[in-house]
Every structure is written in structure tokens, then in C-alpha cells.
Input
Amino acid sequence: MATWQLEREARDRRIRAGSAVARGKMVEAGDATRLLEAILRPGDRVCLEGDNQKQADLLSAALLAVDPAKVNNLHMVQSGVVLPEHLDLFERGVAKKLDYAYSGPQSARIATMLFGGKIELGAVHTYLELFARYFIDLTPNVALIAAVSADRDGNLYTGPNTEDTPTVVEATAFKDGIVVAQVNAIVDQVPRVDIPADRVHFVIATERPFFVEPLFTRDPAAITEGQILTAMLAIKGIYAPYGVERLNHGIGFSTAAIELLLPTFGEKLGLKGKIANRFALNPHPALIPAIESGWVTQIHSFGSEVGMEDYIRARSDIYFTGSDGSLRSNRALCQTAGLYACDMFIGSTLQIDLQGNSSTVTTSRIAGFGGAPNMGADARGRRHPSKAWLTAGQEAVAGGNALLRRGRKLVVQIGETFGENNVPLFVENLDALELAEKLKLDLAPVMIYGDDVTHIVTEEGIANLLLCRSSDEREQAIRGIAGYTDVGRRRDPKQVARLRERGVIRRPEDLGIDPLDADRNMLAARSIKDLVRWSGGLYVPPSQFRNW
Amino acid sequence: MEDLSLRHATREPAGGTEAIAIVGVVASGNLEVLVERVLTDRECLVEIRTTAHGFDDVWTAVVADFVERYSPGGLKFSINDGGARPDTVSLRLAQAVRLMERAR
Output
């Protein structure tokens, strides 16, 4: 007789084995490694929750301590490879294969280990892509997740940094997998139920709260005049003419400058209510002055930001909050929102080539993709119109029947021609190519493909790639705003002049902007302390951002 | 330290009557520009002292574009550079010209 419930039976056997070290669902922190040895099998697919911000740090330490004779060759399927322990697992032989999305702080070591054959790489994904594969071919057998608190039944409160947890649990718990949660506290009643108890099999209370990093705080004091100039160009040359209302901002200083110029420069241009009012965005502190000035209607977030908790709670008209009043974030849904419901992505990058391909890879680092490719890509399945989307579509394909013309998402790269340490933003060839050859990858890790990029903004002006009709035009448009970099100095001045006449390149003076007006006094807040003041004391910056 | 001296003929004299001005700061990634109205109407001199080596052709290009755009006749610029990026150099030079244009 055929058996159709082998997975369920296997799950139940794992739960019984784990129960030997638990009281009900509750496991002592000191028994975490024993629990993992009881429930894990060699070769299991394991999601060790490493999000962009929050980390299941106790569970990673516990997993690292297992006996490799019992638990080995695990296939790690997690969005963030962030903690050193995440890679130590491979050194010890506990884990063998890796599928992931982002490796920020471990980007140098992961490259070394891949090159040295210590890690068998599945693929590097975008967030949405990895989440999608959780439901098709990378479904975890065991998920090790992090939450703020649990009640005695195992209902979980994930707090403002819910992030990836609902997606990870959905894929694991509903496909006969095991969910283990580390929580900062066991309470009688959780403030709200983010994960229902019947999806959680074991709960471990930790002695110290899980690790959260403030990744999205940009100190206004560090914003340069060059960044202010690029921000002015973007607002007047892109936000205004396309009427961009729904958007996602990257995390660099140029977009922080835009956020801080809305209530000043944007106000002067009469753009309030016409641009930048709905965001898929983490709670950036730099957006506080725009929110307080009435620019912003609504924000949905991938995760939270340290120090913004009280402000968010007090501004529930703007943010998504739970019955307890605190932020509810959700990375998978916010990525979907950014992909389908936003008309623009604007962000910075490290390298742009002559066709507009961009990458944050350097030869020795693999930082992964995170979410930028989902934000910075045209959604081919989109069907609802908007002014910005239709205008961009019209520029890309002039002529034809307007009723049959696709719109286009605005994908804007913004940056200064020279980045930190005088490293040029523009290159003839991306370092990503060299890396792909070195590691024998099938694909070079390109963050945003050139054919998705619609505009590039530097202090030299705006290149509108939608209006380019050949790869040669594209190349000269990019060279034309590449300033004194080698790429810029190899421009064809005549062709660049013609592109400027056609409005493909627009210089600051073409937009009525005097570079000498790019002054720090234009920023609505010039320091973290100014942001605290704007928030009425509700924003409580982490200590590394305080100098008072 | 590296020293560079770039001399240009200009189309016309710089505006204003200010005799001397100073802009910027000597700091890493920044620069200080001292500008003096000490030359004849149709000449301009830019003297650079920089901590960064090997950027002569970038300096030459930045200064040539600046002279073409602002025609700063009569002005001598003394730059003390802390490794500023070309866009910062252009901005400081333009700011220096604007300061010289002030009425006394």
C-alpha cells in the first residue's frame, strides 16, 4: 500500500525526539544544542533566521556547537549571512551547501570560502526570489527563528522587526517542518500574535535580546554639498516632471539628502502633495522632517529601525502597526509592494558600466543582492496605470498604439562621479565580471541590469536612458554625466552636446539649478539632534549616533 | 606633497571688486582656496599644493573647464588640497569666484 504521509511521520518523530529535552514546547537555553542534535538530520535544509536586521544569534551559536558526527552537511537556506557563526558552520562541516540573498558584513569572508571550496554555493538570490523558492524547491526542514516574546502555548510576538519570520514559518510549518524560536522573554500574554502557536514547535528563552543593527540611520551631518546637488537634480528633474508619488528609496546619503530637501527645496518648488507621498521603506529617521511637514501619507516597511519605535507608535496614521501599537513589518510583502505598487526606485551603487549595469561587488567581496534588484526592476506583470509609469513607457517607445504600450518603472541610480577614497563610480568593466570568472559562476552578480535603469543622476546632471535609441547613445549619455572619471573624459563631446540638445542629458543649468545653491543650510535637519527635535523627542537614536 | 601651476588666458576679467577671499577648509577630502585679484585682466593662475599624487591630468582638465566657464581674469588661486574629489574642486573654485564678485 502506498504511503503518502512520510514527511508528517518524520516530523512527528523529530518532535518526539526534541520533546525529550523540552518541557512541553519550552527548552532551556543550556539545552539548545541538545535540542538541535535531536531534531536535525544530516543533509537537512535549514533556515537559520538571519534577516537584514534581526539575528537568531543564540540559535546560531547552539547550531555551531552540535556534534558534527551527528549533524552535518546541512543545506543552509537563509536570506542573510550576517554573523561570523553563519560561516563557521561551514568551517566545522556542520553545513555544506548555501543558498542566500545578502551577506553584508561577511562579504569578504564568504568570497574567500567560496573560492577555497569551503562552501558549495547554490545561488545568490534577491529576497523575493529566495522566499519564492522556500515554497518550491528550497523548503526548510527546520527553521530557527527569532522573536521578542512567547506565551506558554508558543504564540510569538516578533515586535517591530517581524521582517522575514512569517514567510519562513509559513514555508516550514505547513510543509511538515519544525520551527524553533528563540525569544527574549516568556510572558503570560504576548502583546500581539505575529506567529500563532500551532506553527511553533519549540521555544527557547535567551538571556540577552537578539541582535538588531541600525542599518538605515544616516547622520545628516555627513551629507555633502555634492549629495545635496544630486538630490536637487533628482527632485526637480525626475520627481517633479514624472509626478512620482509612490516610491522606494535606497539607503545611501544621496537619498537621505532627498528626504531632507522635501520640506525645504521641494516646498519651494510647490511639490508638496504632488510627489513622494507613499513609500515602501524602512522607517528612515531622515524622513521625519518630511513626515512632520505633512508630505508623507503612508509607509510600509521591510523591517524596523532602532530608535524609531516610539515615533512610529505615535504616528500610526503613517506606519503599519499592530493591535499593541508597535510597527508590523514584513519583508516579503514590502518587497512585493516595492515591485508592483511603486513607480520609482532610486538608490546608489558602487559601479556602473557603459550600458548602465550596476554592481556592489568588488573583486574580493560578494555582498549578495538583498532587495535592490526587486525594487530596481520593471515589473512585467504590472497592469495598473499611473502618470509616472505611463510617461516613462511613452519615452521608452515613442509611437505605436498608446493603448497597447506598456508603462515603465522609473529605476534611478544616483551618486557622485567619485565615491569614497576617490574611487570612480563609472567603469568600463564591472569588477563583478572578474569575480564571476574567478569563481566560475554562470552569472556575473549584477545588482541592477542596464536595461532596467531609466535614469542616472550625478553632480554633472541627469542621463535619461529611456530616450536613448542605441547602445552607442546610451554609452555617450553615461559618459556625458561621468565627470572627470576616465569614463567621463573619454566622451565624444560632439555627441554629448547633441544628446544634451535632445534632453537626454540635462545639466544643472538646464534645470535652473545653480550648483552654488547646493548648501547644507537647505537640509531640513543638519544633525541627528535636529531629527530628534523634529520628532518632538520621540526618536531615540542609538548611542553611536549621539554626540551630545 | 606635489605642486602644480596652471596658467590660462581668459576671455574677460572676473566680475566684482573684492581683492581677496578664502573658501573651504584644509581637511581630508576637502580643500582650501585663497583667491587674490593680483593679475592683469586677461590672465588667470591656479597654483595647487596637493597631498594626492598622480592626478595632474585631472587637475588640468578641471581647471581648464573652470576657466572656460567662469572666465576668472585677473585672479590668482592658491589651492591647498587634502585629496578632494574633482567635483569638490570645481565647486570650491566656483564659490571662490562668487565671493570675489561681491561689491565692497
